[in-house]
Structure formats: C-alpha cells, structure tokens
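Standup notes
- DV: blocked on the single-chain target, sequence here:
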Amino acid sequence: MPAVRRQVRRFSLLFGVDVQLDGPDELRTSRALAGALFHMVNEALNNVRKHTPARRVWIRLEHADDEIRMTVRDDAGEVLGLAGLVGSGRTRLANALGGIRPARAGAVLRNGRPIRLKRPSDAIRAGIVVIPEDRKREGLILAHSVRENLALASLKELSTIGMVSAKAERRLASEAVKAFGVRPSAIDVATGTLSGGNQQKVVLGKWLVRKPAAEVVVLDEPTRGVDVGAKYEIYNLIDELVARGSGVVLISSELPEVIAMSDRVLVMSAGNIVGELERGELSEERILRLAVLGREQELATSEGGGHAV
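- DV (later): unblocked, structure below
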C-alpha cells in the first residue's frame, strides 16, 4: 500500500533509522521506536480508509522533439518525484504545467485531450495547481492575514455577487488552522509573522480546503527552510492531498526526501527527462548518475559495472 510504504520510508528519513518492510504486515525496527512508527503507519491507514479517490485523471506533457514526456496519474494515489541538479529544468517544467511560464512548443494532455495553459487561471480550471519554491514571493501575501491567505483559492465559493462573506471566510480559515496545525492559531495575524514551516502549511492549506480538490498538485521544494517537526507535518499534508484524490508531483533537491516520499521518480538533466525509476530501482547513486551522465551513459555505466569519475 503506497501510503503505508511512504510512512515507513519517511520514518527512516526523519529519524535516521533503518526500517525494513518485510511483508504487508511485518515491520522491523528497534523497540524504542516501534511505537512511534506504529502511530505513523496507523495514521496512513486511517487516511486511506477515510478517503477513496473516485477520479481517474491523467496529465501528460509532450515536448515537440519528444525529449520531455511525463505522465501524472492520480487513480493510484501516486506521488511522482522529479529529481535533478540545479538548473536541470525542474522548476521550468513546473511553471509550464502551472501556466506561469507557458511552454513554447509541445502539448499538455488531460485524459488524452490537449489543454491550453497560457496563464495560471487556465491551469486551475484544468485542475492543475503549482505550489512555488519561493513561498514568500509567489505563494503568499505576507502582509495579509492568515485568514485572507487561506481563503485566496476559494474566493469564488465564498462570494455572493462579488462580495466575500466575512463569516464564511472566518469559518473556513478557523477550520483550516485547526486541521493543519498552523501555529499560532490566530487567523487575523499577518502571515509574514509565522515561521517558515507554518507559512508553508498555509500555502498548502489554501488548496486543501478548496473544493473541488485539485487533480494534480505540483510541489516545488515544499520543505525547504523548515525544521524536522514541520517537515513531518508537511509530509502529512502531502498524504492528505493524495488521499483526497490529487496526483502529486514532488520536486526536491533532497534526494533522501524524493526517495522516501515518491512512488516513481523522473530524473531531469539539461531540460530533458533522462530516466524513469520505479520504487524498487531508487537509490541516490542511480539518480545522481542519471542527472550527471544522462540516460545512455548511465545505462552503459550500469551494464559495465563501472562508476562515474
């Protein structure tokens, strides 16, 4: 079960403990940490039981010269990792999917049909949301309150004849702050006064409370600049996105995070996708070889048993 396996890998990532899943119901780790691991896995199971995705959505991006080809699916509750070195084109690809910086060529297909993504509003209508890397400049209005930021993605639903209902906005924000553990819980404080981790919860939270839920959510460096405790809570929010029926694309420069959270990983280099790794193939060494050498040289190195110099 993907959600349970993600919790097990996440436990290893956060606590630096080797945890192995021998079978569907058998976990091996130290007794001292078994209780905490049981809690994390049980939480994942409860989320899976509470939410069963009903949609089957496929988003495919095809580059004109066939060098970029990716598929995001949410029917399997999947987290798709996107790895690569700085400058490999990961953020550029995310911006193209979000209509922030439209692609000059190629096509984006939703359930086999082409969609035009010339601006962010086009992407949102198509069910695609991008959570940007720079949350302070692109994901939040820091001078505005937590309440106003949480309501940004739901203004249409909160409005009547163009006027936002203050009562509905306060109710939505209060429920979101409680559900997502935003601290402090006061909804009228300026978002810029929050810690980095709590700011990121607000960024994610505004899309989690939006109805209908986004079909594909692209997360660009979602845990950058936050502490370990906040990382765990952000990982839970990612699980919540998946449980509510969203396909998630996770972009991260932290390879242990990509490996721990993803069910499948695409590796980018020089603007191209140079490799796709399934769960059982993931390792930091394999991802780095693809990112540095590219697909053909990485395969030659692997088959020859050699190592990159």
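- Follow-up: The radius of gyration is 20 Å.
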